[in-house]
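Quick one: structure tokens for this chain, please?
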Amino acid sequence: MSRIVLFNKPYGVLSQFTSSGDRPTLKDFLPQTGVYAAGRLDSDSEGLLVLTDDGRLQQRIADPRHKQPKIYWAQVEGNPDPVALELMSSGLDLGDFRSQPCRVRQIPEPEGLWPRNPPIRVRKAIPTTWLEMELREGKNRQVRRMTAKVGFPTLRLIRWAIGSWSLAGLAPGSWIEVA
């Protein structure tokens, strides 16, 4: 039976177990051994990491060929109009690749959202907006690159769900082993 661990990765934590100087890593939060992250999150992104001891499952979760849906919440600078949302939904040329079509919609600030440490920068004259994006791929800094490409840089990024697993009830830095 495969071991599966869901972890709510805080901002600033590296998605690896090996030490990297003075930056926190997964080993600072997870006592499990023999599990590895199925995909990564940048240190400046937060949210769901799925870890497993099953190499096949790890590959299936991380590989875009298997089209595992990933839901992200992005707090962006400004207020994207329907044209910007449609551009992101249709797929964008990001230089080294074209993003696949995805679902993008504006949402209210997620309920029960924990404060980020450090907090995002706030500008009184520029509003922020929350977007929910469902992608079936997850290339390096893809969500940030997509929102920037249409003129609305990402200030905060949280991966809420991967497939049927989500962060529901999981505080930052906490984990749960699931069957």
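The chain has two domains: 4-63+163-178, 69-162.
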